[in-house]
Amino acid sequence: MINLLEDKDRVYVEALTPGVDPQSLNLSVMQNRLTLSGEKTRAPIDIKPEAFHRNERASGKFVRTVDLPVEVDEGSIQAEYKNGLLMVTLPKAEKARPKQINVKVG
User: Is the pTM of the predicted complex or chain greater than 0.70?
Assistant: First the structure.
């Protein structure tokens, strides 16, 4: 599950990633698209598949691509993983930020 939000200067992506090894996470940005990939580990090896009564948690490799609403500064992106939540902060490119125009009164 992903949330995408923005303010005046940045775009934020929050991705729920419980059970994902943070070392397996990869992020890339190209042409206003953020791609997130990683791997969610399976249950311990000593548990046989026939022992499960219910298995609703997906495991294995995944890739998710999100279209960004504006152009971002690719050199200033920050990502933080904490308690199963990946928070990506993408500063907007200078040309994508709103410009304040002063009106002269004559």
Answer: yes
